[in-house]
Write a structure and sequence with these properties.
Layout: E1 2-6, E2 9-11, E3 17-24, E4 33-38, E5 45-50, E6 57-59, E7 67-72, E8 77-82, E9 91-97, E10 102-103, E11 107-111
Parallel strand pairs: 2-11
Antiparallel strand pairs: 1-3, 3-8, 4-5, 4-9, 5-6, 7-8, 9-10, 9-11
């Protein structure tokens, strides 16, 4: 099983980034998927989740209206579009199949002027 997150980087406040996560080794389309993040000195926190078909999505209050989670089951890929970014969004972002205990290695996102 592999969950390879990519697309992180540095962005100014108010800017946008799009994260992606390439999944392999399991039936991606059969599982709900999530994004989590962990800021320095803080615990890992839930960011967004999406059902198998993509029909239902869930967000932490802190990102609601700014972030959009989506998936492409044909390409075994999970996405996170992040807009209107804030300094408090700075963290390592992880994609996960929580139900099966599969976690990616994380990608760093830094929001700074």
């Amino acid at each position: 099983v592999q969950l390879q997150a990519y697309g992180g980087g540095r962005v100014q406040p108010g800017g946008s980034l799009r994260l992606s996560c390439a999944a392999s080794g399991f039936m991606f389309e059969d599982y709900a998927m999530s994004w989590f993040r962990q800021a320095p000195g803080k615990e890992r926190e839930f960011v967004a989740g999406i059902r198998r078909s993509g029909a239902r999505t869930y967000y932490a209050d802190s990102v609601k209206g700014r972030f959009t989670i989506s998936r492409d089951n044909a390409k075994n890929t999970l996405h996170l579009q992040m807009n209107s970014m804030k300094s408090e969004d700075t963290a390592v972002y992880f994609c996960a199949n929580v139900g099966s205990g599969y976690w990616g290695q994380g990608t760093q996102v830094t929001v700074s002027s």
